[in-house]
Amino acid sequence: MALTGLDIYKLLPKKNCGECAVPTCLAFAMALAGKKTSLDKCPYVSTDAKATLEGASAPPQRLVALGIGENKIEIGNETVMFRHEQTFWHQPGIAVEIEDTTPDAELAAKIQKINSLVFERVAQKLSVQVIAVRNTSKDPAKFAKTVTTVCEKSQLALILVSDSPASIEAALKACAGKKPLIHGATAANFQQMAQLAKANNCPIVTVANTLDEMAELTPKVKALGIEDIVMDFNTTDPQKMLLNLTHSRRLAVKKTFRPLGYPTITFVGGNDKNWELAQAVTAVCKYAGLVVLKSTDNWEILPLLTARQSVYTDPRKPIQVESKIYEIGNVNENSPVLVTTNFSLTYFTVEPEVEGSKIAAYIIVVDTEGMSVLTAFAADKLNSEKIAKMLNTSGIKDKVKHKKVIIPGYVAVMSGRLQEDSGWEVMVGPREASAIGPYLKTMWKI
Length: 446
Known about the structure:
The chain is an alpha/beta fold and 446 residues long. It contains 16 helices and 17 strands.
């Protein structure tokens, strides 16, 4: 049971020194109970009190890392049920499964395909981050050989999937130093699996069918010295998957129920790839820490990565591009000059339309704190003063010999004032980005 603010206050030194950046010990206790600060901010807390308060100061869901170096990924450590309450911090890892029965020629091709699942969307890199190797053959030697091939041909993080401690031990030798995630520890084998995880400093997956079974298993694994645990509720039924993921998250975040305070892993699949994608997106939204699927098709992976990007974007801080001059095509002194906002989706809607027009142009991006055109205009983040300042200080006057600027049609009302403030001739462009090409071809003249 989580401690209340008053429970915590009773254990604090009550100095009201303010060294924790909170004015009083009572206020610090309330912040600690609300997970808004950490116990290490108090320099005077006693050892006994620290031990008692350890549970109150720890996050409701443990942060677990797998992989190494640039390919290390972190999952868990979430503190809310819904991102509008604060935000989601660690996006789920997307993994593709490989079976150790895959023929050598197909195996190499599949690994290469997984490595190539990298996309760019609104200036962010989206990619598959993990390869899950399944011990379908039940043969430790074959499993280890497949893991060796994967390690030779890919630097992505690894999940080793087998219920055989012997197979896991062989695979761990094949990927020594890679810090894979070991899957999985069941009620029947958790002691052997935990020993392997501890000896190799690897996180481990506990596998159970129900919340009650999982709540019994994770403390047993933790008691063996394993802190980094990921939970698998072992179901392919989408309804059960959704219920288990949601209930475990709620119990961890709302009730601080430590036996379920770990990130989760979900396997999706089936013969219908559309259904596989639907399951994977559901798992990303509610509330998987790792999602493992079998497909390597671009049309399936990209929508999944896009959904993850959308859900795990901080709602308080929209994705933004740098406020500056962008050159589209082989620009020259006669190229048109367009204005837009620094909201990424706005810029990356405008940019391809300008490029598609085959007319080289400059795009001046105004800092509107990540707001779209109409939103920024309504909030007075996009106004004639800001645009005039960009025109006069950005260096665009040194790049073109004309003084014409095209503004979005939705803010046409500012055209007169902008012309006065900047000294530039203001042209009112189309309202929709899709009309930029025809507009430039018919309206742009020096």
